[in-house]
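W.,

You were right to be curious about this one. When I first looked at the sequence I had no strong expectations either way, so I just let the prediction run and decided to look at it fresh. Below is the sequence, 286 residues in total, followed by the output.
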Amino acid sequence: MPTLSTHQIAQFSKNGYLFLEEALTNGQLQGLRQDFEKWKEESRHHSAPYGDTFDGRCRFDVEPVHSFETPALRRIASPIEISDIYLEVMRNNRALDALEDLLGPNIKFENAKINSKLPGAATEVKFHQDFLFEAHTNDDMVTVLFFLDDVTEENGPLEVVPGSHKGPLYEHWHDGVFTGAVSDAIAAKMASKAVACYGSAGSACLMHTRVLHGSAPNLSNAPRTLFICEYLAEDSYPLHANHIPSKYMYEVVRGKATGRVRCSNYEMAFPEMPTGASFFEQQAKA
């Protein structure tokens, strides 16, 4: 039985994103929050990125302004490797039910991370397209952003450009440097078209991998933390190394493995694999 209505499916096709209420159960939401709070408190005792991931990079990334008094933990890579509840939610959530209506019955997991904007951290995400970090044989890929906090106008909501998934793949290399962001000119042109995604904790935004998006700094005293999972059609295969690898990457989370590959027609420059704790270091070069 479909989870999404015909209207919702049409809206996703037209706009490239869809807001979904109650994407998490209350138990899932509380469990995710508890583990993040534990990691935030642990981060107070570090002054730079720390922890190890699948590929040897740091798992926990902090803003330059991070301190014991004002923690500014901004990224946790692959929390599914260090938390049972994050792994459980990645494998089983209401958004996945919706993705069956958008991607088909056979779905794989690609990567997961936490992006957080803690009060005083000034964390900003410059406009970019996820697909420019993760070329695959086809672009039937959806990023699911689970809201762990209420997302408001003041705490740096996700901003998406409706319909941009049907437009060009914008260059993320500038003057020979991979900045992980579109040019300032494109960002300025698209900013007026962007729509903010607000919602209560436990909701989610489903976003096509080609949608142009970004977010401003948190100007409030309330946190804005997202658990972000990327999923793709089972017949989409990577064309380069995963930029946020984990031991669970490309696990089939719905349906079955078909042994088939499907290709779409597009052209883009290969991304630069990050060497730092997160893509924030790449975007700092923009």
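Here's what jumped out at me. The mean pLDDT is 95. And, maybe more interesting for your project: The helical segments are 6-15, 26-43, 84-91, 94-103, 184-191, 279-283.

Coffee later to discuss?

I.
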